[in-house]
Amino acid sequence: MTASDLAIVRGKKTVGQRILGVLSSSVVNIVLMVVALFWLIPSIGLFVTSLRTAGDSSSSGWWTVFTKPAELTLENYANLLSNPTITGSFWNTIVIAVPSTVLVVLIGGIAAHAFAWMAFPGRDWLLICVIVLLAVPIQVALIPLARLFGALGIFGTVIGVILFHVAFGLPFAIFLLRNFFTQVPAELLEAARIDGAGEWRIFLQVILPLGLPAVASLAIFQFLWTWNDMLVALIFTNSESQPLTVAIQSQLRQFGANIDVLSSGAFLSMIVPLIVFFAFQRYFVQALMAGSQK
Asked: Given this model, what pLDDT does residue 103 score?
């Protein structure tokens, strides 16, 4: 028997091995589906509750809707969207989250490119300082920044909240993008410099396209953190600049039993981050796969 014949024999699987392989994959898939179902139960319950009236929610559990589908109604969302406090806070959240994400990605990308591919005095020490800033909790800066923003006249405004999120989002952005940018082959940058490209052109036409998965991942993290933030917004905003999280919290304080407003408001605040995540999911997965391959 030749070596090729032995390889063919060894490559063949018995009937038992094939059945075991099918069962193993099926069991894993079933387990994953069950875990995903249990993970989604709170979100499903929140969505169903948001489609029920306050009376139905107080008299029975949300799971009874599967036997009484007539309880479902869009009245809660109609009342919510007609509430000027909720609608104003929703637009405030967008005004806070979008500039905070764009500025962090832009400034962090430029700084990460400088730390990765530009030589300047004190670069390593500055990078160490950036890494150290990752361990600084935001609670440490609440009082000093509140005093500073009050002196500058931006306390209680959207600008103050944006500056806070940008300042605390930059260390992670620089650290993440710098580690990804260093994986770009140096030959590409040298070829671009030989063709006469400057650092700005290299950054925009070489680094950013190749680092798009990392940039998209950073944008997802920053947007989710800013959109779901309540601590910073609770301290640095007022009634005119408060985001959706603070508005929902104020509704809870004023109408403790108003479950129809709270459930629909909570689901409204959750749906936008989900849309953003699924829109950039492909790039997020690419970043994870690139990191695992390295």
From this structure: 94
Give backbone dihedrals phi and psi of 237, rounded to 5 degrees, phi first. Answer: -120, 165
- The 10 Å Cβ neighbour count of residue 167 is 15
HSE-up of 107 (CA within 13 Å, CB side)?
16
pLDDT tens digits for range 69-120: 777 878 778 877 888 888 888 899 999 999 999 999 999 999 998 888 887 8
Q: How far is CA 198 from CA 97, 149, 189, in A?
A: 32, 38, 10
Closest CA to 145 of 133, 130, 156, 134: 156
Closest of 202, 205, 213, 204 to residue 179, by C-alpha = 213
For residues 179 and 134, give the distance between their C-alpha atoms in angstroms, rounded to a whole number: 15
Return the CATH fold of 83-293: MetI-like fold (1.10.3720)
Cα distances from 192 to residues 65, 115, 186, 212, 256, in angstroms, run 62, 18, 10, 19, 62
The neighbour count for residue 177, using CB atoms within 10 Å, is 26
Are 229 and 136 in contact by the 8 Å Cβ rule? The answer is no
